[in-house]
Design brief:
two-stranded antiparallel sheet; five-stranded mixed beta sheet; 284 residues; flat; 7 strands; 44% helix
């Protein structure tokens, strides 16, 4: 009779746990064990079916690939290669034809053929030019059908003519005589150079007495115009140091001898010149 008992039935489980604490986890586990077993079996069956289908599909694909004859694949590759080989010569032939085309040459250089113009005149006005047999033998053209211009058949001469470039010389722009330039092609120069200019300043500067008593020294930056004649024009202080030092710097600059004027486009012009004038006391 023990074989006829269903151990997974709820009656059998209730009988086993009769008089026991059913809230304990063992009762719930035993009661839901049948459901868990059924789910596990169902999952196993589905997995087996999927594996079987994948194997069947793989065999079908491999058999269809094996069924294709290798001769057809090789023949297709040969046909494809042959098509490429046939296309390449056509391209090379087109390139050769383009390379062999003669270069177009100007009509005014090469000999050209002029068509004969017909003009209706009276018989009395017609003058026929009869050429000798020797002249007819020397020429290869038909008499009376064409005539040749004077020119040259030397292609080198023609190419030299084509490559000749006519360069027009640009005339320099007119220079405004009254304009004062800040940047020029050739700067104004003091006779003897910068060393001579510094020596002139050192020899002619008179240190102001008030600045000397107050021990004031430093650099005054002066800007002045060197005119197109080389003389000194407008003078201004662009970086002052002391009123007495500034006045002395302006006075010395106005006494400078003529410069070699600056030039623009080969013409002498007015140019701004910046000069630092240094004042330094002896023994300090």
């Amino acid at each position: 009779m023990a074989k006829d008992v269903d151990l997974s039935s709820s009656e059998w489980i209730d009988l086993i746990f009769e008089g026991k604490n059913k809230d304990f986890g063992a009762y719930q586990l035993r009661k839901e064990s049948a459901r868990r077993h059924n789910r596990a079996m169902l999952v196993i069956v589905i997995v087996l079916l999927v594996v079987a289908l994948l194997g069947l599909l793989a065999n079908t694909v491999l058999q269809s690939a094996d069924a294709r004859p290798e001769d057809q694949i090789e023949q297709a590759m040969i046909d494809y290669t042959a098509d490429e080989v046939e296309e390449e010569p056509e391209e090379e032939e087109n390139q050769r034809v383009e390379e062999q085309q003669p270069e177009a040459l100007p009509e005014e250089i090469l000999n050209t053929v002029k068509a004969t113009e017909l003009q209706i005149t009276h018989d009395e006005e017609v003058v026929e030019e009869i050429k000798s047999q020797d002249e007819l033998k020397e020429t290869d053209t038909a008499v009376g059908t064409a005539d040749f211009d004077k020119g040259t058949d030397d292609l080198n001469v023609v190419r030299e003519y084509k490559e000749e470039v006519i360069v027009e010389e640009k005339k320099p722009e007119p220079v405004d005589d009254n304009r004062v330039f800040e940047v020029v092609e050739q700067k104004p120069q003091f006779p003897g150079g910068d060393a001579a200019l510094m020596k002139y300043l050192g020899d002619h500067i008179r240190y102001p007495a008030m600045a000397q008593e107050n021990n004031i020294q430093g650099v005054v930056v002066v800007q002045f115009v060197v005119t197109k004649t080389g003389s000194i024009g407008e003078v201004k202080v662009v970086r002052p140091r002391d009123p007495d030092l500034d006045k002395e710097a302006v006075r010395v600059v106005k006494t400078l001898p003529k410069f070699v004027p600056g030039k623009m486009n080969g013409h002498a012009v007015n140019v701004w010149y910046t000069l630092p004038v240094r004042f330094k006391l002896q023994g300090i």
